[in-house]
From TrEMBL:
SMART domains: Lactamase_B. It comes from Oryza barthii. Coiled coil: none annotated. Belongs to the ATP-dependent DNA ligase family. This is DNA ligase.
Amino acid sequence: MAYLFSSPDSKSLSVATSTLFLSSLASLPSPHSEPPSASAASPLSPVPASVPPTALIPGSRFLVDAFRHAGDFTASYFLSHFHSDHYTGLGPSWRRGLVFCSPLTARLLVSVLSVPPQLVVVLDAGVRVTVDGWCVVAVDANHCPGAVQFLFRSSGPNAERYVHTGDFRFSQSMITEPNLLEFIGADAVFLDTTYCNPKFTFPPQKESLEYVVNSIKRVKEESRASGERVLCLIATYVVGKERILLEVARRCGCKIHVDSRKMEILTLLGIGGEDGVFTEDAAATDVHVTGWNILGETWPYFRPNFVKMKEIMVERGYNKAVGFVPTGWMYETKKEGFAVRTKDSLEIHLVPYSEHSSYDELRDYVKFLHPKRVIPTVGLDGGKPDSKEAFALQKHFAGLVDETANKQEFLMAFHRSSRNATLGPEDAVTGLSQQEGEVQELEEATLLPASLAFERSDSFQEKITVEMKKELSDFLPSWVSQDLILDLLIKSGGDVVQAATDFFEKERDFFEEANVYNSETPKSEIDLSSDHGSSADASSQQEVPLFSQKPMDHSSKLLNLNAMRMKSNLSKRERKRGSNSADKPKKKGRSTAFKPLTESSGRKQSTITNYFARTMLAASKSDTSDKVTVDTNQNNVRNDDQFTEVVESEKQSVSQLLQIVDGGMSRESAISLLEKAKGDVNVAVDIFYSKTDNSNVLENDMNIVTQNTENEMTDKSSSTGLLRNSSEDTPKMPNLCVQSYVAQADSVCISLPIEKYLPIEHACWTAGQPAPYLHLARTFDLVEREKGKIKTTAMLCNMFRSLLALSPDDVLPAVYLCTNKISPDHENIEALGSSRSKIHEMYKTFGDLGDVAQECRQNQMLLAPPRPLSIRDVFSTLRKLREMEMKFLVRTLVRNLRIGVMMKTILPALAHAVVIDGKYSNSPVLSLEGIKPQLQELSTEVAEAYNVIPNLDLLIPSLLREGTAFSASSLAMITGTPIPPMLARITNGLTQSLKLFNGRAFTCEYKYDGQRAQIHRSNDGSVQIFSRQMKESTSRFPDLVGMIKELCSIEVSSFILDAEVVGIDRKKGNKLMSFQELSSRERGSKHSSIAIQNIKVDICVFVFDIMFCNGQSLLNCSLRQRRKYIHDLFQEKPGHFELAQQLTVEADEASVDNSTTLERMNTFFKMACQSSCEGIMLKILDVDAGYSASKRCDSWLKVKRDYVGLGDSLDLVPIGAWYGNGRKAGWYSPFLMACYNPEYEEFQSVCRVMSGFSDEFYKEMKEFYSGDRILPKKPVYYKTDELPELWFSAEQVWEIRGADLTLSPVHHAAIGLVHPSRGISVRMPRYIRSRPDRSPEDCSTATDVASLFKAQTRKMEVSSDGQDTSH
């Protein structure tokens, strides 16, 4: 087989089919079973008419799944998958051309059908290959194994794009497939229309799989209980339905029996073999695979074959048989489940499991690709795309294809037929080529300066022939004058089709705008006059018809809105210039003759035919709806500027109200509400939200709903004028296309660049009002979909800028909600009063989130009872929830916001907003160039402040108060607010550590195997204990509280200590216990400590640092100074309260050449290991020896006991897993582990781990990782090339050890830190233990992994050219 792999130096490979075919043919053994194809040695013949167009890619010689039609006209054949109805015609004697297909399909072709491998060309998924000048890509089809879709793109500037799906089932993952994204708007999609009928809306594959698995489980349980032997039979194709078999084997813990032929196929697919889940021993399992149609015929309806089924049952020694027929044709679901056929001891379950797309999925796929047309490949008469069957199928995708792109072709057909009707065949061809040359010349003219364009317009007018005018006149309504026709032809450069298109689009824009003006402007405030400014008779009324009707006097009576018509053709900028520009005479047809159509201001109609249909529909709703009555007799005549000013004022008020209520009412209701509020938008908002009179909440709401309904009903008949006098009714024009895009516009505004975002104008509320939660929800929605950190920061910055400008009091709550919190971490307050893990446990017990919420709130201690909620409060609040507010409100309540941003992104975004708000609050012009240093400086200060005092209640008010003058020193340390602990870097042995600390005094300390604790004592004598994760754990250690009060000096009133709490066995000479033994100690709760008498594991506190003492911060003091504080202020009590064991090395002793120092350190390290410690810590004493809260610094190093070749273990986070096989079937194995990169706020995969686990642990993890801990898709902040079957939310931290570290092309850990394009992976990883004391963000970082890689004894040496070698 010829394999085409992507070259590292090229994104695509080029193949000349004829050349490759000739060489491949020559390599075949002789004699051939048939002579070589003529196409191999001679020019290709024309494509015969017998070849179905549904199999031939237009403009090429590529034939897809049509080997029965092979001939001398092509040597390029494509096979989408290995099903007989697609590969018919292939066999050992195939010599017609090359067969392009996927690797699995190629393997099956060669092994099963004996197709010569020399003629099979393998296309790997996602690899771009140029075949005969066309770019061809294969992408997964989600059908049977090896099934692919083919994407074809021709060469040249006007490349054609075609998608051939073969057989496929649409999945959401296709929406994110990069290659498919490039084919949005393709010229055509050759679509698998097997189930293109609304009745085929069968359930997702997962639901059908669940049914089969659960049914077999039930059968097995009943069989064991009754002692009856029951045979399960599953019908499958030769290739296909393998997913069902694998799922049954995994979930039911059994093997699957297949015959030798099926085993051969499965082996070729890579999932067979006797050591796997399949077996040829029929006695080894009671689940057997049978061939298709054995249990019954499926087409055109199911006809069970109970006779054959009983034969199989008796032959194999069973008392009962249960069969499963999985296919989409079996969609006969009942209310109580899927259809079942029964007879005696036989059952056949009809399972709507399909590997073809359902009707809704087909529509979703077409909607996603938005092609110009759909070509059905199934259900056609002879494969003819113009047959009745094809048209019937294509109707199902009306509105989903890009009809705009077909508009030119639609009109061009009439254009060509019109010209050819008056010309002979040769003249028609000549005339068309001449016209194309003229159009090309005109298009080139558009690139000329405007002055030259004016000079050339007369010459174009000379080229406009009588035939062109006549032809265009046939397209247009009868009232269009010859002057207008000439003008249209000049503008279009003589292109009749373009001229007609321009006319209909401008007419549509005109009527849409006229409709908006009419619906928003009170009749009493508008005076309309003719173009000449004359008044009509007082009693006369003029009717303005649709463009398809001829007006009585078009020049003077066309709505008297010619000013409007002129404005509808102006750009938005020109409209805003007012009367100065409006009054200037414009030379019609001249100044815009060469203006590109893309600069037109209106939103274009999708197709002309849609315009006709919509207009006629509107016109048919009432006898009077196609007319606008205009009173031309007015006492006051106003100029266009006054007219526009009034309309714009009214329009802005209505738009502002609709914007605030966010689509909560129709435009008509908004206008009526403004009438009640006498034009005051704020009063109207209060009425809508029932804030002005709570006693009338329900009444006001119901009035609005009723009014909405009435207005909409009136709109459908002969609507009354809006914002009108109560005594005057004015019928309005049919609403052709008036839609509100306020909500979408507001949402998009958040994503604007910072320089273009206007914090007040783009906000969805006004100054003085509380900020709506919708502002946050829209931002969350955009951030959730954004992958880039810079763009995410900018969107958050824009969000905060609006809050600062309009509602600064809402900034603090907004920051909390962005972080999915309602209080600082150490206060342990949750939205439901419980942690997320606790909510999960309670949900398993209660089975209802409402019951969980009630239980949480009942157990939550409150300082004061909250104000009772009234029925009206709840009703009104729920009524106000809009757009995605509910989505993120629910996520907040279950503590799973999932927007992918953390505090390290949120705080810089807020800092940027503060700087910009301070500098540009009164200036509409914003430039970031001059303030970049300030942005960076304030971001650093805010981050530094939060690192030391992670309390937003203190930080945010100080930041808003001081603005750009804020500094980290502005916040004073206080007891009761934990400090993020300082962390150590990993090193590989004492020698390397000594090199790093060369010439600097340092200390060695035992690294205890316990729980890190931060101990706070306040001035009032109270003691609090916080964990490494800054969670309060005072209630767990009441004995520690007693020690502190007993052993601290009377000279100290307040302090913050850093220590390790270790389990200790005082009965065995104060022997240190392991972390697991300490973990068995009771935990207590926030409001009740464990009783002293119930304590089973004693503890000893080993203090190693102090950060705060008697109101003074010691963070900037050296470690030597801080250690002196500890010695002076505390007295030790062996086995209870001790200072960490230490060894001091002075600066003159710190040298690798000093063997005495190295020996002392080695002895100290051995003593630490013998004392059940993890290793030792090394810390600088004097130079750069401050306490760097929350940072991992080079001034602290850790040396742990070596494990094989890896100098230290890694703390990694499980982010995904695969389903286990064999003994581990039903569990997760292996797990995908990741480290954390704080710079990019992403988890990067390191390795798969599948050893070190107990069976009990597997069961716990299967239970733990369930529900919403299993993510529906890979988060954007998970970086890996692995494809696990399940993605997990990042929640646990596991300690992992391995043999060594190696470079990996799959894993992304530390990518770019050691190798430019490869990550680092752990070889032979093994699970050691869980680390409940660490949060996912506290796991090993990418820098840690890179440091370990560089420090290991045996490592890969990376060269500059990306090559790597081991030594």
